[in-house]
Amino acid sequence: MTSDMTARMLRLLSLLQTRREWAGADLAERLDVTVRTVRRDIDRLRELGYPVASARGHAGGYRLTSGSDLPPLLLDDEEAIAIAVALRTTAGGLARIEESALRALAKLEQVLPQRLRVQVAALQTSLAGITWEERGPRVDPALLAGLAVACRDHEIVTFGYTTRHGTAGARRAEPCHLVDSGGLWYLLAHELDKEDWRLFRLDRISDVTPTGRRVAPRPVPGDDPTAFVAARLSAAPTRYRAVATVHASADHVRTHSRGLATRLQPIDARSCRVDASDDHLPRIAQTLAGLDTDYTLDADPDVLAHLRTAAHRALRATGT
């Protein structure tokens, strides 16, 4: 194949991996070629071992499916299994994994043959590890991966949800983004019954079911999902209030303190505000401990008492 054709086919493969199904005309427009050229390139991908399914008719299109063999992703079976298990274990063990890694996991599991999926599941259930510290509620990696796919495909899902007050109920929503904030994962979605944007904590979600209905992407108010989530979290009621005024820029704190992107509010070029408010005192202490520069703190008396007790305990342990 010529270099131009190779580049075009790699671009085609990348497009097929980013959406559950593509219309031939849409692929042709993206690649700036004819629909007939798209059909020929699809046939070439099939000859290379990529399982591309197609449906005829007005609503038909192309989609990358799982096949009997792992497509040539420059990974052998053992490497594919190792990557899938590593991504799943990281997500479930730490509940902190970048959304780009979730997309990689979703892409990989989309094309894993059944025989490899069985091995991945078996390894996942047999692995054990030591947890040295508690970083908040655990999140099921399969839930993370499933919701990442739903966000990518703009597919409506139904799920059970338990509120902070313990009330359980069924929800139906359009997933938009997954956001990690201070060790907690949130799903930003448009809830259809309420006709409003909502935040759902992933550790309170259960029984996610795709409906098969895909919709056009819905723009987030302000066109900035992170800022929108930050505003919602800062406005949400918490048991304990703790707000730190940090003597460093928001960019500095964002770079050096992971997981605080949705809790930051710039003040000026040399200072910012970090909202560490939470329902759990140890998590507030953990958030503040992650700051690598001086700050002043405006917090509830219970928060201050907890921090003083922890500080005195640390000083006694060091003999100070």
UniProtKB/TrEMBL annotation:
| Stored Pfam families | HTH_11, WYL
PROSITE patterns on file:
HTH_DEOR_1 (PS00894), HTH_DEOR_2 (PS51000), WYL (PS52050)
Keyword annotations from UniProtKB, A to Z: DNA-binding, Transcription, Transcription regulation
GO MF annotation: an example: DNA-binding transcription factor activity
Q: Which PANTHER family match?
A: PROTEIN PAFB (PTHR34580:SF3), PTHR34580
Q: What is this protein called?
A: DNA-binding transcriptional regulator
Top-rank taxon: Bacteria
- Give the organism's phylogenetic lineage: Bacteria, Bacillati, Actinomycetota, Actinomycetes, Kitasatosporales
Q: Where is the HTH deoR-type domain?
A: 5-63
Q: Which residues form the signal peptide?
A: none
